[in-house]
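Tokens for Nephrocystin 3-like N-terminal domain-containing protein. Go.
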Amino acid sequence: MAMAEKLHKRFHKDKNPEGMDFNDVQIYLQAAIAELKGKKEVYVLMDALDELPDDREGLQRAQMLKWITETSNRETHVHILFTSRMGSSCMDIEAAMKSQSRLFQVSIDTMTNRDDIRLYIEGQFRANNNLNKLKNLAQVNIIERLIGKSDGMFQWVSCQLDELKDLQIARSKDVEEVLNSMPRTLDECYMRILQGVNSRLQTEIIKALHWISLSFQPLSLEEVNEACIIDSTRSPAIKKEDQFSGEGIATLLSSFVSRIGDGKKHLSLSHFSVKEFFKSSTIQDSEYSKYGFYESGAHASIAESCIAYIYYYSSCPMRLGTQSDLEYFPLLFYACRYWFEHLRLAEEEQERLAPFVIKFLTSWEVYRNALRIYNPLYPEKLFPCKIPTLASPLGWAAALGLEFLAERLLEEDSKSIDAIQDIRYFTQKHEETAGLATHPSIEFMCELCGGEEMPGIVVTQYANPIRGTALMKAVAHGHENLARLLIENGANVHVQEKGYAMNIESALSIACGKGNENMVRILLQGGADPNENCGGESALKRAIRAQSKSICEILLEKKAHVNESESAQYSPLMTAALMGDSDLCNLLLNNGADINWKIEEEAEGLIDALSIATRNGSVELVDLFLSRGSQIRPEALFGSLSAINMMEDLPSDASRYNRVCELLINGGADLNPVSEAFDTPLAMALHIEWYDIAKLMLSKGAQVHPDDSSCLTAGNTLVAAVKSLDMTREILDMGVDVNAQVAFVEPFAEGYDYDYRHFSSALQAAAFHHNRDVVKLLLNRNADPGITGPPYGSALYAVVGRIVSDQFVSSGDLSVAQQICEMLLAKGAEWDRKYGPEDEERMAECMLGYRGLTEWQKGSIPLNAPLQLANGGNTWFQIVS
């Protein structure tokens, strides 16, 4: 499945697998479900839901529970199976289960998984050289005792097996001693493991366990070896003599960790209960309390260590500023990528770190090095990230969600709260011209652009970040509490700023575009105008483009205008139609949207909501708009007919366009419109071979005007019908002249489009398509084979032109072509040999046909076209001429 592969690739790329937040998971899950829409049943499996973090702002577990319940109610063919422990730490999961009738609980009790535990133990015995030497009776005794005391916990069994495996000689006496001293609980198992820890390396072991417990992505062995020796109180934070080699600290972490990933090069806690143990009161009240941690304090320590490591990197003489730095400094990427993530979770420790963080953000040389490794403004860009920084720590506090830091900075100075935080590229020349004071960050910009004169807009191959104020940064990055703080401190919610892509943005437009419902509420409560016009687009249209029905409802409740005031703008309803969202269209119509709003000029004919729906082939929307009284303008019918012709590859459900056309015709569409830009609907339907639609049109009054000598419609219709013998006969029977003129025939040019209107007569078109029966019908109806015109000259030349234009010509094709030529010659057609250099104008007019004849004469047709026929070895040209 493509979406699953993309998800795995994104978060396991290179050597640095990324952690996922709820938005990432939701986007990919919904896309995967949509991709599998055609399947009868879809199954989604989620393991260990209880291990999702319940952080203060993200509320990932709560959001995932909400997604599960909403999806199970909305998508009845989607079946979601998730696992979780029960208990005091999972009360929210139990409550969600009880509140939803569609969620069913299956309990796995101790007895249920005894067989699984038995298989696990037997496998461990077979794999261990000492344990597999025990007699069968002894093995059975050990297995039964382990299962009996396990209470269904694999991790408890694993810990006991580790102790048994450590026996250098597995005598029955030694085994019995281990079994008799087995701890009753997991906590007791972990306490026993700590008894054997090397006290000389206690500090390093504690740091390593804390890092592994709280890291946002699995850490490699090299990263853990580096992390556990950082001392943020000294400079440099790492001393060479402290560094580990080889396996290093991993050999001392015992049963607490396990190797994971390709090559088993990354470390992870062996079980979720290990983290709970280090956070529990059990260890806090014991002699091993140093190993325990409060999450906020541990996150603060890790954040501080990350920043200290960046300082160490910046001052190290071994720094080269190249890709090799990521190998020589193994923790560098993690430190630059996640220091602020850990800092956000430091809670009561944040204030203590504030001065240190401000100093870091204003140490331009040091912070520049961090941005080169990872820049949060360009998260997709990997090293080296030579891209801009922000103007002040307040801008970074807003972008990174550091609420405590923003609060402290605002207390010191709130005057610049509405300053644009993005620094543009300037050279020294521009700096002097603009009268700008020398600023380290501006010098940095000049260095990055290589001294070139690049004032103003920064263009990269990556998605540009939102330009703007601290509030706009907070909104763009989804930091709701921080946005609320900035508004409370006087941030202007109405500021608009031109982005890197020249688009105009405001805080509200950003929130609507991101689909952040809570943020929209915060901004509206803070005084944002629901009818603001931002770069020619309303907040409502931004929300529609994000396909957020809830935000649209909020804006409409706040009296957002449901109709446009300028005739040149798409209306909200047209925008919703463009997105193909029937729920939004219904919402807008129910709130007074003008279904017949029309824009004055639109080159592609998308002038109203109905024409957009028809061009997109949306049966549901066309049906909805017609039921709501939509006027059927000519552009709507043309849109449904031309859409198929404009597609290079037909969609699997192309029949929906046919159904749309049928709805419009039965709804009273004008089948005989006067248009300079389009042919008649009947001719268009015949061209794309929708003969059922063509017959429906004829039954509903479509006309060909055979008696009107000033109208060329009849000729076009006849030319469009020549692929079908029945339709050609029906059009002729309506009185159309077999030699009717054709409209819109353009002079031939290189790259000529072989459209049905680009033939001078129906006979020429039928000859080109090698439709022998239609050619015979037309000739029997007195079609004139002598009529000439672009692009082939005559019908005889059109036969040759088709042969030359095809990449592959079968003997069957040649046989049919020969028969058509003989029919034409029998009716008086001639090979006109006057086309040559002496008649350049006529030769140019009929270039395709002339070129085809010349190629045949020279024998230079592609080798895959058989030149010799069975008729005495003569070439086809010799026969037909």
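Residues 198-374 form one domain.
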